[in-house]
Amino acid sequence: MKHDQFLTEMIRSELVEIVGQQYVSIGESDKLVYSTDWAWMPQMWLDRGQRLHPPDFIVHPGSAEEISEIMDIANKYRIPVVPWGGGSGSQGGALPIFGGILLDTKRMNRIISIDEKSMTVTAEAGIIISQLEWAVNEKGLTFPHYAASSNCATLGGALAPRGTGTVSTKYGKAEDMVLSMQVVLPTGEIIRTPPVPQHAAGPDWFRLFLGAEGTFGVITEATMRLDYIPEARYLRAILFDDLTKALEAGRLMMTRRLEPFVIRLYDHASTASRVKKILGYEYQGAYMVIGFDGDPELAALQEKKAMQICSALEAQDLGREPGEKWWEHRYDFYYPPQNLKLPWMYGTTETVTTYDKIENLYWAEKRAVEEGFADLGIKFIGHFSHWFHWGVMLYSRFIVEDPPEDAQDALRLHNQIWNTAMQAVIANGGMINEHHGVGLKLSRYMRKQYGEAWPMMLKLKKSLDPNGIMNPGKTGFGF
Ligand SMILES: Cc1cc2nc3c(=O)[nH]c(=O)nc-3n(C[C@H](O)[C@H](O)[C@H](O)COP(=O)(O)OP(=O)(O)OC[C@H]3O[C@@H](n4cnc5c(N)ncnc54)[C@H](O)[C@@H]3O)c2cc1C
């Protein structure tokens, strides 16, 4: 946004009246820090010495009421409002691409109540996930959204893009754990969704805010379901020669309701590269980790039944140690020194589909990417990490170790590779994303993903956010 100094001061003084002087910044260093999240594109752009569009104002609100008043200002001056949690999103969802007000929610980090009978916690949305977890752990409970980014991501940031944690296969995605939310609408009303998520009092409109990534309003508070800290946790690793059989083993564990808390299946390429590098195992095949938890007797029986499925599919039992080692190092895959990092070009083109389509989708995407960009020496690796009763998520990644130096060329190539991957995904019945969100990166595929249903989404957006102030340019919506 272009403001002259007079208008900037006008807006700043109005923001200061709401939240206080120390909670509004127009400082250059703050602007730089808040101009990028964890997406590859802006990180690369900065790395190559280019500038990103900064926010005009960084505001740290202390309550839903303050956010409501901030919405009034944004609507009056027609300036964007971009919610920001931990800024750990990988899709550019929190980038202030049109400037405006960047709303950092982390001051809103209070735990309001823990209900041990209903096993719920109510907290403000800016709380860091690990802090929420530590608080409920003191009661012998757990918030089982174990995202690899839990130390830097917020509760609101997990709900807004429909995040998924390591144990989602048993405990569900973040969106499955939410009972109710408080939301500030783009027009400033503070609303509460019904107190429980399962009922028959009309359509499930509260879900509109899950996956909207801040384009339908700001989540300010949420009541989340908790679980008991499991008494036992058994992990085991298995090796398959054949991906088809490995996928079938996972499908049977899910459809027979054996309740694994994790099934992590690495394709041959990931087993040979990532598993070898991070866990130090040199296996040829598809490496799978399975885990069962809870009551020790029940978990042991579930594991036994799972192993019967695996051995009927000619898998090799590698025992507990490589499963436990994986659990211990499960986050190392995403952090220095083991993570994918610049100057490499990479992208996580994760997707989800039903069991009947998943293998075709995997091969179609792999072929399209590897054959389409063979001259770049591109690598395509994947693992299947979040399993449902009906299908599974594919966490596929491409890696180019020697990308173009020039920032514009690199950005163009990144988009071309992504286009190729997404075309293969959509053509094979997959969704463009399972848990990282749409953000800016996937915004342009939303019309294609939803086809004739897309105009309905545009109408919803228009009615909730008539001036288009909320996080413009994201999840397919313009400014
Ligand atoms: C090392 C690493 C590991 C990761 N592992 C996982 C993982 O295991 N599982 C997973 O799901 N993701 C993972 N991610 C991606 C990312 O961390 C998650 O999407 C996370 O939930 C984002 O939370 P955040 O608070 O950082 O949100 P941000 O990045 O700040 O925001 C994400 C989006 O949500 C919107 N938003 C934020 N807060 C609110 C709010 N209160 N109301 C409305 N909209 C809001 C933002 O505008 C933006 O569109 C990982 C990222 C990194 C860097």
Summarize this entry quickly.
With 479 residues, the chain is of the alpha+beta class. It has 16 helices and 19 strands. The protein has helices spanning 5-19, 28-33, 40-47, 64-77, 129-137, 155-159, 168-171, 174-177, 243-255, 268-279, 296-312, 321-328, 355-372, 407-427, 446-450, 454-464, and strands spanning 24-25, 57-59, 81-84, 101-104, 111-115, 120-124, 141-142, 178-184, 190-192, 218-225, 227-228, 232-240, 262-266, 286-294, 316-319, 345-348, 351-354, 379-387, 391-400.
Describe the model:
By secondary structure, this protein is an alpha+beta fold. The protein folds into four domains: 5-106, Uridine Diphospho-n-acetylenolpyruvylglucosamine Reductase, domain 2; 108-228, Uridine Diphospho-n-acetylenolpyruvylglucosamine Reductase, domain 3 (2-Layer Sandwich), CATH 3.30.465.10; 232-334, Alpha-Beta Plaits, CATH 3.30.70; 345-454, GMP Synthetase, Chain A, domain 3 (2-Layer Sandwich), CATH 3.30.300. The chain has helices at 5-19, 28-33, 40-47, 64-77, 129-137, 155-159, 168-171, 174-177, 243-255, 268-279, 296-312, 321-328, 355-372, 407-427, 446-450, 454-464, and strands at 24-25, 57-59, 81-84, 101-104, 111-115, 120-124, 141-142, 178-184, 190-192, 218-225, 227-228, 232-240, 262-266, 286-294, 316-319, 345-348, 351-354, 379-387, 391-400. Strands 12, 13, 14, 15, 16, 17, 18 and 19 form an eight-stranded antiparallel beta sheet that branches. β8 (178-184) and β9 (190-192) form a beta hairpin. The N and C termini lie close together (11 Å). Flavin-adenine dinucleotide is lined by residues 37-38, 82-90, 93-94, 105, 125, 147-149, 153-154, 156-158, 160-161, 163-165, 213-214, 218-219, 334, 435-437, 439, 471, 474.
